[in-house]
């Protein structure tokens, strides 16, 4: 079975979506019958060559960051392009199963539910088969946990969530949304995030009070 792992992050490297897909690939590779192909949707348009390659796969797995409770605009444009392609090519396979992983900067994984529902609705409207969604909280720290093994430390809950999610992909099953978050205290996560913002403000030559300044 051929599985497309689609990175929907606009970042060229070191994104939470990249880390999630790398961990997912390691899980999928345990099955010798699985072949994985990587796609990066960095821009709001997909190459025709990549579109044709996508339709040679049995499953699509989207991984993307949460943007204002929704899907990033560049990824939405790619989805619209795929939907139009399906409409213009009635002979493309409609047996493709679609799965989605949304990660958010919020600590709670449930914050991703709306974005996953958007992906699900697009999938059904496009005539594809919806599989399952996974909402991952505390995505802001995942890029820094690249070397932490899945199922250990702060990624313990993610490892548990991957068990049924990966099984459903392999068996092309449809199930309800799963939500999870990092094994890291919410308060400590909030403090670390605020420290990160202050560091970025200083790096850009600004002061903390500047972020409260109104634009004319």
From TrEMBL:
InterPro entries: Flavoprotein-like_sf
Tree of life domain: Bacteria
Protein name from the UniProt record: NADPH-dependent FMN reductase-like domain-containing protein
């Amino acid at each position: 079975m051929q599985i497309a792992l689609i990175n929907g992050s606009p970042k060229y490297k070191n994104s939470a979506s990249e880390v999630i897909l790398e961990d997912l690939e390691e899980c999928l590779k345990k099955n010798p019958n699985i072949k994985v192909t990587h796609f990066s949707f960095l821009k709001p348009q997909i190459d025709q060559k990549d579109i044709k390659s996508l339709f040679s796969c049995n499953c699509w797995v989207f991984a993307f960051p949460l943007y204002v409770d929704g899907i990033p605009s560049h990824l939405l444009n790619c989805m619209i392009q795929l939907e139009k392609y399906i409409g213009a090519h009635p002979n493309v396979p409609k047996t493709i199963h679609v799965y989605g992983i949304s990660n958010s900067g919020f600590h709670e994984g449930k914050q991703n539910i709306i974005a996953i529902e958007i992906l699900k609705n697009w999938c059904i409207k496009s005539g594809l088969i919806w599989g399952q969604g996974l909402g991952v909280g505390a995505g802001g720290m995942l890029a820094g946990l690249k070397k932490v093994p899945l199922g250990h430390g702060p990624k313990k809950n993610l490892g548990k969530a991957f068990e049924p999610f990966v099984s459903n992909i392999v068996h092309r099953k449809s199930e309800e949304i799963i939500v999870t978050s990092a094994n890291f205290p919410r308060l400590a996560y909030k403090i670390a995030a605020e420290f990160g913002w202050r560091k970025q403000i200083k790096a850009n030559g600004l002061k903390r009070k500047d972020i409260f300044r109104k634009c004319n």
